[in-house]
Write a structure and sequence with these properties.
Number of domains of chain B: 2
Radius of gyration of chain A: 19 Å
Structural class of chain A: mainly alpha
Distance between the termini of chain A: 44 Å
Order of helices and strands of chain B: HEHEHEHEEHEHEHEHEHHEHHHEE
Oligomer: heterotrimer
Shape of chain B: elongated
Helix content of chain A: over 70%
Strand content of chain B: 15-25%
Distance between the termini of chain B: 81 Å
Order of helices and strands of chain A: HHHHEEEHHHHEHHHH
Shape of chain A: globular
Mean pLDDT of chain B: 85
Number of domains of chain A: 1
Strand content of chain A: under 5%
Number of helices of chain B: 13
Number of strands of chain B: 12
CATH topology of chain A: ABC transporter involved in vitamin B12 uptake, BtuC
Low-confidence stretches of chain A: 298-303
Amino acid sequence: MHLVLEQIINGLTIGSFYALIALGYSMVYGVLKLINFAHGDFFAMGSYIGYTVLVFLVAGATVSMGPWAGMGLAVLTAGVSLMAVGIAVERAAYRPVYRAGRLPAVVSALGASIFLQNVIMLVWGPRYQAYPADLIPAARIHFGDLTVTMLQLVILALSFALMSALYYVIQKTTFGAAVRATAHDRNTAALMGINFNRVIVFIFTLGPALGAVAGVMVGMYYRQISFTMGWNYGLKAFTATILGGIGNLPGAMFGGLILGVLEMLGAAYISAAWKDVFVFLILILVLIVRPTGLFGERTAEKV
Amino acid sequence: MMKIVKYVLVAGALVFLASPTLSAADKEPVVIGLQGPITGAWAYEGQMAKQACEVAADLINKKGGILGGRKIVIKVEDDAGEPKTGALAAQKFVGQKDVVAVVSTYGSSVCEPASNIYEKFKKVNIGYGVTAVRLTERGFKYFFRTCGRDDSQGKFFAEAVPKKFKARRIAIMHDNTAFGKGLAEDTKRALEPMTKANKVEIVYFDAITPGEKDYKVPLTKMRETKPDVWYYTGYYAEAALLVSQARDIGITCPFVGGNAAINDEFVKIAGLNVAKGCYMTNEPLPGDLPYKEAREFLAAYKAKFGDIPSSPWPIYAADAVNIIAYAIDKTKSTDSDKIASFLRDKVDRVPGITGPIGFTAQGDREGVPFYLYVVNNEGKIVISK
Amino acid sequence: MRDLQNLSGGGLRSARLLAPLAFACLVTAYPFAVSDYLIDIGFFFGIYALLGLSLNIVLGEVGLFDLGHAGFYAIGAYVTAVLNTRYQVPVLVLMPVSCLAAALFAYLVCSPIIHLKGDYLCIVTIGMGEIVRLALINNPFDLTGGPNGVFGIDFPRVGNLLVVDSSIEYYFLVWITVGVSIAGLVSLQHSRIGRAWNCIREDAVAAQATGINVRAYKLLAFVLGAALAGAAGNIYASKLMCVSPESFTFWESCLMFCIVLIGGMGSIPGVIVGAAFISLFPEIFRPFAMYRMLVFGSIMIVMMMVRPGGFWPRKRGAVTLRPLMEDTADGAV
C-alpha cells in the first residue's frame, strides 16, 4: 500500500509542474484563443535562469546561504526575468498578428518557440546542465514505511500556494474580473472600459513567471536540464490543460495533477516505456466521453 | 556588347577550369568533412565533435601538416541528428570534390542513409558515435568507425571479467529494456566459446522489472546459484537498489555493472559503504586515457576551450580525423579507393588518442577500448588496476 | 488583408493561369541543370509538398486542426519498410498498400473523435501522433526495430527493367506523385465534396442544416489526407532506405501545419510555396551553422506579420480570417 502512496506523491510532484505550466497555456487560451506553443520554452528558459543563479551563488559563496534561501532566490529571479521575456515575446511575435486571426498566430507561436529554444542553446550551450547539488535540499522525511523528500513537500506547498494565489487574483480582484470579462467577450469588455492590452500584458507576465517557477523546481527535482525540455513538458502541460477543459483555470490545475499521477501509476504498474502512450490514451478516452474535458462546461456554454 | 559578354564568359570558364590544376601544385589545404548534429537535441555531441576535430587538425597542422606541408581544414555540415537532414548533408559533401573524406556521424539511424550515399559516391566516411551493429554488416567498402559497437561491451566483459575475478560461475541480470536486454544477450553470446569449452558457466540469466523498489525475490533466486561474479546490464537507479539489497541478504560476490549502471548518482543512492568495490564496464572517459597522444590532445583541447570533453564520443571524432590524415599522408593520395583499402588492410595498431587504431575487414574498430572501472574508497569512479 | 486579396485577384488573374504551367516546366527542367545535392533538396521539397497537400485536405479544406499528421506519414513509411524488408514485397506495390494502411488507421482512430471541436480535436491528433511514435520506439512484436528503426529497404523497381536508384529518378518519382495528387485535388476542390468541405469549414452548423453529412465529410477528409501522407511515407522510406522514429516527431507535424498556413489555407499553389519555404530555408541557412534555426524561427514570425493570410491565399472559396479572440460556431479555424 505504501508503494502506491509513494507513487501518488511522486505523481503529484510532477503533476504540480504540469499544473503550473498548464496555467499559462490556459490563461492565454482563455483570453486570446491561442495555443501558445512558446510557453514550454518559457519554462525551459526559467529553468536555465534558476540554474545560473544557483551556479553564481555556489561560485560566489561569500555569504553562506542555506539551500532554501538559494532556492528562493532562484525561483524569484527566474520568475521576474521570465515576466520580462513574456512581455517581450508578446510584443514582438504575437501582438502584430492578433488581428489576422488564430492560425497565423499559431505559426508565429511556433516560430517564437524555435527562436527561444535556440536562444537557450546559444546562451547556455547545447549540453545538459546539472543543478549544483550543494544547493539542493536533501532532507528526507519518513512516515512509517513511506519516504518523502523535503524537496517534494516544498515543491507541492509552493505550487499550491501559487495556484491558490492565482485563483484568488483571477476570481476576487478587480483586475481578475477584467481578465475574466475579456475572456468572455472581448468587445463588450472593451466597451466597459477594460484595457485589452493591459489584460494581455498581465497574462503574459503571470503565465511565463509560473512556468519559470516550475522550471526551477524541475531543475532541482531532476537536477538535470536541457534546452529541448520545453517541448516535452509543454506538450504534457498542454495535454493537462485540455484534460481539465481549456480556458478553465481550476481545470488546468487539476488536469496537471491528474496527469502527473496517471503517468507515475502507469509507469509503476503498466510499463515505464508505455507510460506516455497510456497517458494519451486516457486523454483520448476522456475526450470521447466528455468532449470539452473533465471540467469544461464553462467553455462549452460560451460556444 | 554580346562579344564582350562572350569573352568574359570564356575567360571566366577558363579560369574556373584552370584553378584546381593550378592550385593543386601549391600548398592547397586538404579538406576533411565533419557531418554531425550541430543543432537539434544532440547539438551538444555535434558541437563538441566539431571542436575535437578542429583541435586534432590544429595539432597535425602545427607539426607541419601532411603530404609535405599541406594543412588540414575541417568543413562542417549539420545533420541535426535527423536522417533526412543527414542525407542532405551527405549529398552536399559528395558533391564537393575537395572533401577527401568525411567524419560521419553521431547517431546510428542518421548514419544509415548518409553512409548509403557516401558508399554510392565512393567517399570514405568514418563514424564516431554510431554503435549499431548492423552498420558494418552491409559489406560497405568506404564505411568505417572509430567507436565500438553495441556488442563490444559484451565481448569486453567476456574477455576481461572472468579472468580478473577467476570466476567460473557467472550471473547475468538485465532489466528488459532494449539496451539492457541487448547487452545481456551480447554478453551471453560472447561467453559462448568459453561455456562450450567448459571454462565458465552461466548459472543465472534473468530479468528484473525496473521501477520496483523491492528485488529480494529475484536476488534470493540468484543467491541459490552461488555465482562468482554478477553482471547487471541495466540502469543505475535499479543497480543501486540491487546491490544494497543483495548485500543485505548475503550475496558477497563482486558486482559488475554495464555502462549505464554506475555513475556518481549510483554512489549517492547506494551509499559509499555498499558502492565501494563495485565494478563497471565502460568506454574510457577522455580524462582516463593513458596514451601520450591523449595527453597532448586533451591539453590542446583544454587550452582552446577551457575544459576537456565531457562525453566519450568527441575524441573518437578526433581520432577519425587523425586516421584519415594518416592514411592520406601514407598513401600520398586523396583517392577514396586508395584510402579505403589502406585503412582496411594497412592500418594496424596506429597510435591514436583512444589507443591503437586498426580496422577489421568489415570496417569495425579493432580492439575497441573498454575499461573496467571501480568505485574506490572515496566514492570516486576510477580505472581498476 | 482583404485589400491585398483584391489586388492580387484583379491584376494577376492571367498570371495565375500561367503559373502552374511555368512551375511544371521549371520542375521538369531543374534536375537537368543542377548537382545531386540540389536535386535531393528538390526531392525533399517534393516530399513536403506531398505532405502539405495531404494536410491541406484536413486543415485547409475542412478547417480541422490536425497536429498529428506525422503519425499517418509514419504508418505509410513503416508499412513499406516492414513489408519490404520482411516479405520482399516490391516498394511500388507497397505504395497503394501504404496509402490504404494509413487511410484505414485514420478511419479507425478518427471515427470516435471526429465530433470533437477545434482545439480538443487538435490535442487528440497530437496524442495520436505521439502514440504512433512511442509505439515505434517501443518496438511492439519486434516489428519496428525500436529506436534504431528498420533498415535495408529496396529501391522502387519494376523487375530489373526500371530501377529508381538515382537522385534524379527519385526526384521524378516524387514530383510525378505530386502532379497526380494536384490534379486529383484540384478536381476535388471543384466538386461537390470540395464545396461541402469548405462549407463545413466556414460554418459547420449551417452546413449541417443544408443537409451535408458533416461527420462523414470530415472523416473523408482525414482518410484522404492520411492516404496521401502514407504515399509520402512510402517514397520517403525507399529514398532513405531506412526509417526510424525520429523522422516522425511532433515537430514534423508542426512543420506540415506551417506549410499549409505559410502558403495559405486551402490553396494548392500556397502549399507548394509553403513546402518550398519549409524545405529550402533550413538548407539556405546552412552557412549560419548553429544559428540557422534561430533565423528560421524569426522568419516564420515575420512571415505571419507580413502575410497573415499566407503567401498565396486562396481566391475561390476563400478562407475567412477571423480575429484572434473571436469564437466560431465550430471552434475550428
